[in-house]
Amino acid sequence: MSDSQLIFDKLHEECGVVGFCCEKNSDVASLCYYALYALQHRGQQSAGIAVNDDGVITAHCDAGLVNEVFDESLLSQLGRGTMAVGHVRYSTTGHERRLNAQPMVVNHVKGIMALAHNGNLTNDAELREALEFSGSIFHSTSDTEVIAYIITKERLRASSIEEAICCAMYKLAGAYSLIIMSPQKLIAARDPYGFRPLCIGKLPDGGYMFASETCALDSVGATFIRDIAPGEIVICEKGQLRSITEHCNKCTPSICVFEYIYFARPDSYIDGYSVHLARQKAGAFLALEYPVDADVVIGVPDSGIDAALGYSKQSGIPYGMGFIKNKYIGRTFIEETQASRERGVRIKLNPIASTIEGKRVVLIDDSIVRGVTIARIVKLLRDAGAKEVHVRSSAPKFLHPCYFGTDVDSKETLIACKYTDEELVSMLGVDSLGFLSVENVTKLNGEGKTYCTGCFSGIYPCPPPPPRKKSKFLQKISQTEKE
Amino acid sequence: MSDSQLIFDKLHEECGVVGFCCEKNSDVASLCYYALYALQHRGQQSAGIAVNDDGVITAHCDAGLVNEVFDESLLSQLGRGTMAVGHVRYSTTGHERRLNAQPMVVNHVKGIMALAHNGNLTNDAELREALEFSGSIFHSTSDTEVIAYIITKERLRASSIEEAICCAMYKLAGAYSLIIMSPQKLIAARDPYGFRPLCIGKLPDGGYMFASETCALDSVGATFIRDIAPGEIVICEKGQLRSITEHCNKCTPSICVFEYIYFARPDSYIDGYSVHLARQKAGAFLALEYPVDADVVIGVPDSGIDAALGYSKQSGIPYGMGFIKNKYIGRTFIEETQASRERGVRIKLNPIASTIEGKRVVLIDDSIVRGVTIARIVKLLRDAGAKEVHVRSSAPKFLHPCYFGTDVDSKETLIACKYTDEELVSMLGVDSLGFLSVENVTKLNGEGKTYCTGCFSGIYPCPPPPPRKKSKFLQKISQTEKE
Amino acid sequence: MSDSQLIFDKLHEECGVVGFCCEKNSDVASLCYYALYALQHRGQQSAGIAVNDDGVITAHCDAGLVNEVFDESLLSQLGRGTMAVGHVRYSTTGHERRLNAQPMVVNHVKGIMALAHNGNLTNDAELREALEFSGSIFHSTSDTEVIAYIITKERLRASSIEEAICCAMYKLAGAYSLIIMSPQKLIAARDPYGFRPLCIGKLPDGGYMFASETCALDSVGATFIRDIAPGEIVICEKGQLRSITEHCNKCTPSICVFEYIYFARPDSYIDGYSVHLARQKAGAFLALEYPVDADVVIGVPDSGIDAALGYSKQSGIPYGMGFIKNKYIGRTFIEETQASRERGVRIKLNPIASTIEGKRVVLIDDSIVRGVTIARIVKLLRDAGAKEVHVRSSAPKFLHPCYFGTDVDSKETLIACKYTDEELVSMLGVDSLGFLSVENVTKLNGEGKTYCTGCFSGIYPCPPPPPRKKSKFLQKISQTEKE
Amino acid sequence: MSDSQLIFDKLHEECGVVGFCCEKNSDVASLCYYALYALQHRGQQSAGIAVNDDGVITAHCDAGLVNEVFDESLLSQLGRGTMAVGHVRYSTTGHERRLNAQPMVVNHVKGIMALAHNGNLTNDAELREALEFSGSIFHSTSDTEVIAYIITKERLRASSIEEAICCAMYKLAGAYSLIIMSPQKLIAARDPYGFRPLCIGKLPDGGYMFASETCALDSVGATFIRDIAPGEIVICEKGQLRSITEHCNKCTPSICVFEYIYFARPDSYIDGYSVHLARQKAGAFLALEYPVDADVVIGVPDSGIDAALGYSKQSGIPYGMGFIKNKYIGRTFIEETQASRERGVRIKLNPIASTIEGKRVVLIDDSIVRGVTIARIVKLLRDAGAKEVHVRSSAPKFLHPCYFGTDVDSKETLIACKYTDEELVSMLGVDSLGFLSVENVTKLNGEGKTYCTGCFSGIYPCPPPPPRKKSKFLQKISQTEKE
After folding, report:
1. Helix, coil or strand: residue D377
2. Which of A480, A481, A482, A483 is the mutation pick for testing B, counting most B CBs within 10 A?
3. CB of C266 within 8 A of CB of C275?
4. Which residue of D has its CA nearest to C104?
5. Is A15 considered catalytic here?
6. Max CA-CA distance within chain B?
């Protein structure tokens, strides 16, 4: 979790998902709201909730933060029910924010279905093309609509929605953590590699919930049961859980390691391991890999703080509070005008001179993607009187695109692809610079676990999508918005 | 056109449509805005514009009046282009307002397509069911999505979009006036009965436009060319008009007579005839059918005024201004609370005592559907000192549901179905009451023309839809809205 | 009353006022809302309501129309009480809209006071200067704040608020219709000339109300009692009315004749006479003063319609419906961009060709101030095929500034000051042109009544203010607004 | 600075002030915006900016956060100028938020004046009464209006605005840090005790600024010059600073010690001393006063973190990250419904189990006022598996009301007044509890400085106001708001 994603040049997670299946009629809209609020860091562009009251689905989605999209009156319009699905989303282009907001609610031959999706299909284009050639129409540009179609097609011959999902999974390639709500069932499915997290919680008043991270469980007082296994389909119906494991144990588990480094909230447990501890460990590894003689260790708020504590503990160099972050971030138009990016950083982040002045500073950031922000932060420290600045990144170098649910799909913007270490040290104006090794990044959760480290190593667990062809017509559907 | 539709118990037209195809890149978003503004009386629940800039379609639709949905910044986001399609809509339930807003923009195998539709399919349910059985998914509950599918399916084998539309028309039953925008063509199509109006105008700066009514042409300075014939498909491409007449002259022309009586704006010409003159004639017929000895003829603003002038001219009884209508109607929450319906009428409509006091009054309204409003208006006149009140309705009695684009689909709410003339006279508190005869209503445009008068006569030009079956699951997709 | 004031080059009334004094605790906020809604034509820039619940005054004022400023939640926040004061306002500059919104609520030595004011002091600058020299501070630029100070100063030695008002009236010069609410009394006061209207109504559930026009009484079901006399102070306390007549009958009654011609709503009675009848009479006088051989008489909606009916009746030339006015005026940004003023008129007003084509038309407008709009309307008629256009203005020529509550304070913009009749005929593109004579304008209400006709004759009932000096510092307080 | 003030039972600072006086015409509205954004923690209820362009003052104030009240369009409406004054405000009742928003702009005999005020007069009621007896009217309930009057009265005979301010200061008692803008001067004044901070910065492009805290200087790149001395008046005119010291050194300097403990931002320097260091020192003193055998020291985010670091350093017990605070706080309606306060805390603050489980925890909070929040936080820790919880407050016990600019004016809500230490330990469910001693709180900035510690000790630097009399009439002016 990091504020920086709102302001700086960071990667963006695509989505957070949540679903509820209560034993009795409840205020599921509010439960969803609280859980999405806890998952807000996974997507700030749009939010949506679909409520199921005895088979009737009522939904609202819009562009904006959870507390901008929903208010008390809207939640009460969504009403009570036994099930609900919620979604927060980051999307790469502003024009499509409202159009692609989820959950997507569709009618099909056997009824109605709401889908919430976190991930990225690698065969989206092929599936879409084949569907179009059979006369399908698409309202959105999102791969969620493709998934809805594939499931619907399978539903024609399958005897149940879960069977349709299971059949569909043979056709879907890439990363997906799905929550699907039918009139009577809530179903969660995780792709066979398990790129994105998904877990199960038990609700205090009976019933179950699914969510991207455990912090969503905490927000509604639910108890963590277990993670959903890669390839697993979990069905919740009438207060009972069932599981389909047909797709399990067919591939090497490959959770995105960046969930630990940056995406997830430190108070979450992902696939059984504390994100906060993983980040502390990253800091400790850094202290071993790149030791330095210094007076104070500070972290870039908020996501560099955990690793800074780990670096401090391992190295014995005292931890200090380096910056005050203005907490009234929210919607400010300043960032949009971008009149002055320099000022932009300073407004959000002000160094505490008493911590820094005359000191040799170790500065821990969670990652260095494009390098613009870190350069500005280093300058803030220099201006505040730092004698030396040693930057340590708790992520390895970003060298390759990600095809599994984040928004870096080109090498052009990755600073580590373009410059040598010496050039980076000079460009960023630092005294030394160190990136966590790929070897150590796979040890953050203890030994023996496997990850997707494609963005660092270029080795992906499954084939990336083929290069995109340009279509005959320009087919951009955009939907302008009042903001 | 009538204000009353905003406030009282009136029928609601379903939609207004407009399309532009300019010779060169223009501010088509603004043209669309002006035209929709002129067609606002045809639908107040949602509005939308899709702009085509060299094959790239950008769209915005939302619940609200045209000037609520769009502002300057949104229009400039929609940008310039050579083509645009616009739509205003009335929908029967508030929950679906935003979901069903048009134009609908869909991607299909051969590109992208924007549809705007005025009318109502009578085989919507059958087509939808068949599509669902072939694995189609539906995002909305509107028959426009069905039309989009049918055209897309035909497009697979057709050599052009217009050919696909022509083939699709063999499958569509009921009322439809369509405007469809493909990457390179703007196409208008009217069902073979011609239930809803649709006309062609020539733009002052080159190019053509299509619109539901001629008042939209006037609003942008376009010249009226001609009406689109029932069954005709008109294609506008590269500044040229072409026509496909394969579906023409296959059925008896059956324009909805209520377009003349109530729906259309008086300054429009529908199928070649002035709406204002038709209404005056309705008043004149009423004077012949139901003469009365009286001192003054007044009309219920706004749509009763034309007929009142006609009644006055025919009868020789002086015309008077009976009411002041508060013109700051807009969005007032008063009507929504319905704290006091009595007060509601009085706030919108205040009698001018000097016209009424001590007088025998002939009061002309355009129609009497549920009877609630007219009863309140009669009471206003009595309170203002009217000696006698003789009500004349310029529409015949509403006795049958409409399946072709208005919102009366049950007899339960129609006052004329439930009571005898004597009962009505006593219930409304009037001295006499007269409805225009069905015979005369078909003469409003001159002799020899044919109409749909199904709502008055129960005789429909084509078969109404079969009674609806209840589906296995409740399938309501609703979408709540901030209002 | 005229829509035109929203769009065209018309005069603007400054304000409408209303006050309620109920026998028991009531929903006075809603009563005020309804009444202000009926008075909306007197001011569209800001609206406000102050509610008095047992001496505690709660108020809300803002820029906007009544139904924009208030919604259900705000009215319920204002709450119930026994008294309330409301105000709608037109102000000349946008920047000051919110700042100068009324009622003004002030604390003074003897408690609290809410003031609503319609009119214009002619000694505002002198009084303000004297107050400033005694150390007073001003939050607004409105003369209402001056009135509040003068009354407060008098209150120091007066034994009651009404005595303070009576003393203050010796110091106030110019036009004022005031409603003042103290903790326990509701007081109305009209300047000794009676420039602006003010009347008394009896509430259906007990108690009284004051209002600028009788249409506000109708909107809440109140019964008209009488007009407040020029110079009269009426006190309502504990359900009883009392009157102070010390300032009555000291001057010639001088109600603004333009209230009859244009400002007031046709359904109102002003100083005992029907506005609608006055306007009809203006049309009849015009027919006598400027007869013409023609085929049809039409009026510019809405305020030219009454006089057109009068002209038609007197001349025997048939009345026709000449234009359709788009009723969805509300807030449209079109007028603000002013991209195309020509288009602006056409969007609001569309001629009905069947009424006009090939006809010799008499066109009645309520007044011609700057001449821009009427020229465009004439062009619309020509384009629609009118053979001849004869314009008649039911107001005499505007030749002099008004100092008593309207916004024309310079001769520079008055078209009739700058051109001869021949020039006007040619500039407006008409076949003939006639203005009602000043002589006849004073006969609209019957013989023997006296008026202020200063704007036509240059003869004012009391001295106009001295020319303004420029102040040492630029002292504009402006307050920007979100709109 | 603390988030908690948005959500929990904390004290509220009344205001933050800022003023700019540039050498040349600049975008002072934006400068003000940035500075207010940095001072947002000092008041979240309303915000305002007044811009001075060559003597013409344009202002906008409203209820809301800085980035809610202002957007780009509003800032550009405020426009450029040479001077500006800004204000953020906390007010005790919602109804008065907009009414009392500052800067207050008033016209007086010598021109116009904008005032921004942080503090609280102790003789407000007396001054107001005397002014009312001389015929003054009050629009607000704020003591800022009283200050405006007192200065205006002095201005009548003073030869300059600064002389008037200097004379007025003899009449004003209590706490005030004022920024006043006249047509040509920007003036800052601090009361002789110096209760509230106020400092001077030099702008990068020439000219000076005044601000409550140095973090506002940082936000616009200004250089800290010095603090304004208690009693000092600083005038900035034509790029030059002058000082009036007539009121200096007449009283014992008495800056509010709570500015260091809680109000100010850690990155600010107040009267020459780092807030962050003061808080660390508070933690260190706590470790000496209340040592305990424990495994981890954690702080309540955000304002307990600094002291927790100090406690950890002094005691040698490792510092840990105890909680994740949801950073998307902003406007959420959750807190308003208060459906579940328990859930409320959990949604904002989630414990990191890996830090806490099985540990003996020292929990540092900045203060304990009403005790509700800390009890809930302790419960969160217990639920997360803490073996022991030892609470330490970096502020002494709150035992007395504050009359100098915070919102605690009664003993009724202060938990430490009502219970013994044993009762508190049991009520809060902790293993031990310790409050910083008053003696040590005065050593946070080094020895020899003097403070106001009235809220802890009951000994005030100057007399508190006399008890309030009830006024004859209920005189509440409230102004409802759309929120």
Report:
1. helix
2. A480
3. yes
4. D139
5. yes
6. 72
The span from the CA of A366 to the CA of A435, in Å, is 10
Prediction ipTM score = 0.87
Q: Nearest 5°: phi and psi at D31? A: -55, -45
Q: What pLDDT does residue A371 have?
A: 84
Per-residue confidence band for D68, with pLDDT thresholds at 50, 70 and 90: confident
Rounded distance, CA B61 to CA A321, Å? 49
DSSP assignment of A209-260 equals EEESSHHHHHHTTPEEEEEPPTT-EEEEETTEEEEE-TTTTSS---EETHII
**Dist CA B320 CA B285 (whole Å):** 19
pLDDT band at A479 (very low <50, low <70, confident <90, very high): very low
Specify the higher pLDDT residue, A10 or A285: A285
The 10s digit of each residue's pLDDT in B108-131 is 989 999 999 999 999 999 999 999
Check CB contact under 8 Å for A111 and B183.
no
Distance from CA of B233 to the nearest CA of A (A): 22
Question: Nearest 5°: phi and psi at D397?
Answer: -65, 135
Token pair of D475 as six digits = 């005189």
Contact check, Cβ <8 Å, B333/C218: no
Mean per-residue pLDDT of chain C: 88
- In the predicted model, what is the mean pLDDT of chain B? 88
Pairing type for strands D360-365 and D296-299 reads parallel
Q: How far is A110 from chain B (nearest CA, A)?
A: 8
Give the per-residue pLDDT at C9: 46
Q: Would you say residue B73 has pLDDT above 80?
A: yes
Amino acid letter at D388? E
CB contact under 8 A, D152 and C138: no
- Determine the Cα–Cα distance for residues D386 and A65; give it in Å rounded to an integer: 34
pTM above 0.90, yes or no: no
H helix or E strand, kind and range, residue D186: strand D186-190
Q: What is the DSSP letter of A123?
A: S
Touching chains, D (3+ CB pairs < 8 A): A, C
pLDDT digits (tens, 9 = 90+) for B267-319: 999 999 999 999 999 999 999 999 999 999 999 998 899 999 999 999 999 99
Whether the Cβ atoms of residue D83 and residue D114 lie closer than 8 Å to each other: no
Please name the amino acid found at residue B174.
G
Least confident of B4-13, C36-45, C461-470, D117-126: B4-13
DSSP state of A299: E
d(CA D23, CA B155): 69
Q: How far is D70 from chain C (nearest CA, A)?
A: 9
> What pLDDT, on a 0 to 100 scale, did the predictor assign at position D408?
65
DSSP SS3 for D40: helix
Residues 6+ apart with CB under 8 A from C423: none
B155 in helix, strand or coil? helix
Gap between the Cα atoms of C174 and D247, Å rounded: 48
Name chain A contacts of B59, Cβ cutoff 8 Å.
Answer: 477-480
- Say how many Å lie between the first and final Cα of chain A, rounded: 25
pLDDT at residue D394 above 80?
A: yes
Distance of residue A296 Cα from the nearest chain B Cα, in angstroms: 50
Taking an 8 Å cut-off on Cβ atoms, the answer to whether A352 and D3 are in contact is: no
Q: Pairing mode, if any, of strands A233-237 and A240-244?
A: antiparallel
Q: Which residue of C has its CA nearest to B277?
A: C354
Q: Which among B167, B480, B482 is the top mutation candidate for probing chain A, defined by the most A β-carbons within 10 Å of its own β-carbon?
A: B480
- The verdict on a CB contact (< 8 Å) between C67 and B34 is no
Does position A262 have pLDDT exceeding 70, yes or no? Answer: yes
- CA dist D401 and D369 (Å) reads 11
Q: Which residues pair with A81 in a beta bridge?
A: A26
Instruction: Identify the band that residue D12 occupies on the pLDDT scale cut at 50, 70 and 90.
Output: low
